[in-house]
Amino acid sequence: MKRKLKIRGSVRIIMNLTIVLCVLLLALVVNVYIYDKKAGMIAGAYWAGMVLITFLILFFGKKRVQNEMIRYAANYGNMQTSLIRDMEIPYAVLNDEGQLLWGNGRFLEVIGNKKAARRSITNTIAEIDHTKLPTTKEPKTVHVKMGEKYYRCSLKLVSGVEGEDEENGIQLDQIVSGKDIIVMTMYEETEIIHLEKLRAAENLVVGLLYIDNYDELIDSIEEARQSLTMALIDRKVNQYMQCIDALSKKLENDKFFFIFKQEYLEGLKEKRFSILEDIRSIDTGNNQTVTVSIGIGVGRGTFMERYDWARKAMDLALGRGGDQAVVKQGEKEEFFGGKRVQIERNTRVKARVKAHVLQELMESKERVVVMGHSIGDVDSFGACIGIYRIAKTLNRRAHVVLNEVTASVKPIRDRFRTNEYEDDMIISGEEAKKIVDENTLLVIVDVNRGSYTECPELIEQAKTVVVIDHHRQAGDAIGKAVLFYIEPYASSACEMVAEISEYIGNGLKLTSAEAEAMYAGIMIDTNYFSNKTGVRTFEAMAYLRRSGADAVRVRKAFREDISEYKIKAAAIQNTELYLEQFAITESSAKGVESPTVLGAKIANSLLDINGVKASFVLTVYKEQVYISARSIDEMNVQVLMERLGGGGHINMAGAQLKDVNIEEAKGILKKAIDAMIAEGDA
Fold this sequence. Notes:
By secondary structure, this protein is an alpha/beta fold. The protein has five domains: 64 residues; 109 residues, Beta-Lactamase (2-Layer Sandwich); 135 residues, Alpha-Beta Plaits (2-Layer Sandwich), CATH 3.30.70; 209 residues, inorganic pyrophosphatase (n-terminal core), CATH 3.90.1640.10; 117 residues, Roll (Diaminopimelate Epimerase, Chain A, domain 1), CATH 3.10.310. Helices cover 44% and strands 20% of the residues. The protein has 26 helices and 23 strands. Strands 7-8-6-9-10-11 form a six-stranded mixed sheet. A hairpin with a 2-residue loop joins strand 7 and strand 8. Helix 19 packs antiparallel against helix 20 and helix 23 crosses helix 24. The longest helix has 25 residues. About 2% of the residues have low confidence.
């Protein structure tokens, strides 16, 4: 279709300039004629000639000028098209739905399948889906991989144009006229990525290696074998460091510092830090097992930042019970090992030091507020009672935060509703918010994750926080604590608080109700003293017995009613043995005052089945699925529950799943078990 070409803009002004000059020249001729008629006539003749020439140019030369302009524009457009078509940078035009309209030769060479791209660019570049296409003038960037090469794709939305690309057979005036189009440019960044990988591989990683039980090991070995044992450990460590071309230095008898290239780190992860098993296999001659912990700091930070990450990773490893490796990269942590039962530490030096620090902190404040985890159990409440008694002994006002009173806690709680205790001894989280200030010491027991506490807001509100817990430390543990006492070797939080109480002094004496609350916490967490008990556990129990704890009265307080016993029996009857080794069942929460506590009891009972490595009881409660996980010594259920967002101990853990039904929760649990088996952790 032919269209009449109209000259506009600056070109039109220039071409019409002669008319303006003719008008001005006419005015000049008139003025000359007024002064001198002869001169005016001569000037008029010249003006007439100029008008004639201007007329000829405008009316006979205009078409030639237009043709010249068209020829120039066409040549210029062809040059642009040629440059875009032949340039080495892949360039393409898409419609607003992501369909290819046109692409230069380099682009078509990169994508390979032109017909598939016509239907949708996603067919050839999977990374660019409809969510990645720009819908505003703001350009979008997408990183893609095509074969062995990497590209950075810039996508920009522009207005559509009219025209025709005959060579590619695209009628642009029919396809994109009046519509938006997407201009796509691909910049190859293969070399940059390879250089980045090389830089990352050459990056130095900082590591620390500690012998977990050095003091106990030396004390238990006769003097003649001590040097031999340490030589074996040093040899294992040095051989391991040589395999990764590491520079290592022994800082103390039980501490090593090392650095190595990051390219070796993935290999260490794949083998799950085999040195943990190598060290554990050393024969000490007295059945004592040697374990080590490793903390590694990696990332783009400075060397001091990487060293700080390594120290924090080591704190995490030790806080989780040792015998494991923790790799920390900024705020991200990865855990390896920690599959075995923690080695009990008989020394109480740490408890004595923590007791003195706790006493100093309490004496520097006017009030002490203590809380445990949400949906508190007997161990959590008993530990709170122990801290309450310490605070009262030091003449400080004290309060226990307890929101929901479960059936297991109720008989213990009711013992403190007497005239011997203040009415505000036990308060809710909302009441605690009103009294916590800069002169308050907040003590958190039996939990080290802020989101799991009775009232997480108190952590931000309080200026001074203390954490006392026997669960393995999580990566998102409370960071602002001035005293962080984590003892994964302990059977319960009540055991830890009982040890601290013995070192407080100041005439501290537990009442029988307080002693029984702590005794009950140890009893429940150890499943009636059959699980995770050590020398220090029985020492704490002896201390509580001397303080007036009546074991018979505690046992009677935890007898089950007939309805719960029937639910327990039904859950056991419907148990599924997954892979013939993992007992999985569902516990009903209907008519049960404390469904999660009942689930834990059922899980403990399922361990009595022959051949069962671990038991899992799922309970639907408060629109969530609660999982109680238990094992004896063949599986680390704490690692398994961490995969599901939970945590706990090696043989006693749990997790909460949101927005799933019971069958979906079972599927998620089974997939996690399969993953652990595939990785050799189960």
